[in-house]
Specification:
This is Replication-associated protein ORF2/G2P domain-containing protein. About 40% of the residues lie in helices and about 20% in strands. The protein is built from ten helices and ten strands.
Length: about 300
């Protein structure tokens, strides 16, 4: 769980606006509110993006302890939150359950009240509640649902391309490269984190971070044993991957230069052919061969032909 918390805090630092969101289902006579529908959240995100918001997410779906009602806990990371005025809609937020939720309901925007249960257009299933922040506490609250529920009933998802927090780690690696500083460990402290509790890079995050700082084997001797072993592992993986991917233009140019360097001249190739012809059974060509070899700068000896000195 800590890995998700640390990466989410890193993502929050590179986002312009963050929102911790709870999305609920209204009571239904057909008990549909007791069923978690991941597709509903996916459509909610699609509606936000259609409205012009540039947003990434981390979400957990679970069931309430008291009534077993389905709901989602999400952290939304906005690189751009579309201003309400540009969409020409006046917000009207409702904190009670209407008989029918219509398209006249307010759209999602920064004007949603803090910590109030309201209705919005993009979530026609029930209330939502927004906290316009993404602190370590609120992120950890959402991420705890990753472990809290039965994996057969709970649902968890997050933005993957690029990975959550990728931009923050890329900036951190770029800064280290500019300063010529190699990592001594893979611990990190995103802004807002408890300094007594650092987070730890794993998997692709660690790989991309180290590869962005250096792939030069000359730096290997400057690393401590832990980082050096990790560097060797990634170098081996790059070598294996290279066997399955098309060669780069630079590599092809290098191969061409090497081939040209060892390629025999046309004169040498022709000479070899003529020498082979000379020792064939077609002795009547010997005179012609001798003549050609003479013009190529060779003379006949008992052992064949050799270049004239």
């Amino acid at each position: 769980m800590d890995g998700y918390v640390g990466r989410a805090m890193a993502e929050a630092n590179t986002s312009s606006v963050c929102c911790t969101l709870t999305l609920t289902y209204a009571p239904r006579s057909d008990l549909a509110d007791k069923i978690l529908h991941p597709r509903h959240f996916q459509l909610f995100m699609k509606q936000l993006r259609r409205s012009g918001h540039k947003v990434r997410y981390l979400v957990a779906g679970e069931y309430g302890d008291l009534k077993g009602r389905a709901h989602f806990h999400a952290i939304l990371f906005f690189s751009h939150l579309e201003p309400l005025g540009e969409r020409g809609v006046v917000p009207r937020y409702k904190d009670d359950y209407p008989e029918g939720i219509t398209q006249d309901d307010a759209p999602f925007c920064r004007e949603i009240p803090q910590e109030r249960m309201v209705h919005i257009r993009e979530w026609p299933h029930g209330h939502i509640k927004a906290d316009w922040s993404a602190s370590q506490k609120s992120i950890r609250y959402v991420c705890k649902y990753i472990l809290a529920d039965d994996k057969n009933t709970a649902w968890f998802s997050l933005s993957k391309k690029p990975a959550i927090g990728a931009e923050w780690f890329a900036r951190k690696a770029e800064k280290a490269k500019e300063l010529g500083v190699l990592p001594s460990s893979f611990n990190y402290l995103p802004p807002g984190a408890d300094r007594q509790r650092p987070y730890y890079m794993t998997g692709a995050t660690r790989r991309d971070y180290l590869n962005a700082i250096t792939q030069d084997s000359a730096d290997r001797s400057k690393m401590n044993e832990w980082v050096r072993n990790t560097f060797d592992k990634f170098a081996l993986q790059r070598a294996k991957d290279g066997a399955f991917y098309p060669p780069t233009d630079q590599f092809l140019e290098y191969i061409k230069e090497e081939i040209d360097r060892f390629r025999p001249s046309e004169k040498d190739v022709l000479s070899k052919i003529l020498i082979e012809d000379y020792y064939d059974e077609d002795w009547h060509l010997a005179g012609i061969v001798n003549l050609k070899m003479h013009f190529l700068g060779y003379e006949r000896t008992q052992d064949g032909f050799k270049k004239k000195t």
